[in-house]
Design goal:
Largest sheet: 10 strands, antiparallel
Strand order of the largest sheet: 1-2-5-6-7-8-9-10-11-12
Order of helices and strands: HEEEEEEEEEEEE
Amino acid sequence: MPQDIAVLDRRISQLKKYVVTLALLWAGTTGLWFMKTSPYVVRAAPLESLTVKRLAVVDQKGTERVVISAPLPEPIINGKREKRDSPVSGMLIFDPKGNERGGYVTSDGADLAALLTLDSENDQVFTAYANAGSGATVWVTNEKHQNVVMSTHNTAVFEIIRGKKVVYKQPPDAAVLKQ
């Protein structure tokens, strides 16, 4: 009989622990439910403004794929940091290898231009250049230096270039277009 009482005491002790555990789980679950559904819970207000000098979006490997910065870093071409023609601020896009593949930028130099660029792995192949004062220039090119250029900067000009030589230009006496 004393053994039966000892067994019952152990079983009652185990049941007490079980009941306490269940009560704690129920209280925690109920508390979380009330916190999530209560109209009195303080919620963070949406962020209305964010001021940063640089913002980078990275992929799952940690490679920067989008950078917004003022000023922007020098370009990476074929894995090497190169020199930019002039300082710019804005947004750049990068391929999975980390090479710059284009951007939407404004010039930090004296010309104050706005540019949209798209790059191959080796060079800039598309540029839309909005002049600060008036007019714009669109430049489409390839690595063979075959270009088509349209500009409305000072006067409307259309130009075709092959191998760095102008093969068609209208009007023929228009100023030389530079990228």
